[in-house]
Amino acid sequence: MKNIIIRADDLGYSKGVNYGTYESVKNGLINNVGVMVNMKDTLHGLDLLKPFDLDIGMHTVICAGKPLTDPEKIPSLVTSNGLFKPSKVYRTAEYDVVNLDEVIIEIEAQYQYFLKIVGKKPDYFEAHAVYSANLLKGLEVVAERHDLPLLPFDLDLNPVKFKNNTTITTFMDSMKPNYDPYRTFADTVKFALASPEDNVPMMVCHPGYLDQSIIQQSSLTIPRTQEVDFLCDPKVAQEIEDKGLHLARYTELS
User: Fold this and answer.
1) How far apart are CA 109 and CA 46, in angstroms?
2) Mind listing the pLDDT tens digit for each residue in 58-73?
């Protein structure tokens, strides 16, 4: 039986996102959830998911909300008001604006807080929204320091190494025009059926409902609601079963 992963990112981003994630866990397919530990609604989201047996990942943040480090210690990551720089700053920069030493400090702070509020090491360890070589290097440093299951990201269908014996290929189209989660799911299933068992396709979702907080903070809006409906559609679960696929958790991979 071949594996596929369907993951929910952004728990904690807003109460609306938390409720959409809750719905996608309780009545849907989600068994892997990434937590943004620095957001004001993080604890609310974790409380909602307490009844469920899930893999919980650390969705490291450097482009939303407040840092967990004194802003004066990480000037490359923050604006003049002490908040993280928005993701568009990183996307439009001509060079990597992230200072490696500074980002390691913030990643370590987020990891220590994750341990405090979740009560265990993350089941996977990765980053939110920003592509930066120094951010990725910082994640590698902290992952090696604490023996964490680092999950690099690549949105060009290049497989990345996870743990010792698994590669993961990412399918995430929610930021593209005319997004249809069913189409992305079909591509994920097609890849799973055609690939070796140790190359696992991963569909990354961002389920959520829209509230004022998420509308003000995020450019990703309507696709979040689309994904809640998709993830809770019994026809999707039935297709996974009919195709003989296993909806895997990161802790099941070696």
Assistant:
1) 18
2) 999 999 999 999 999 9
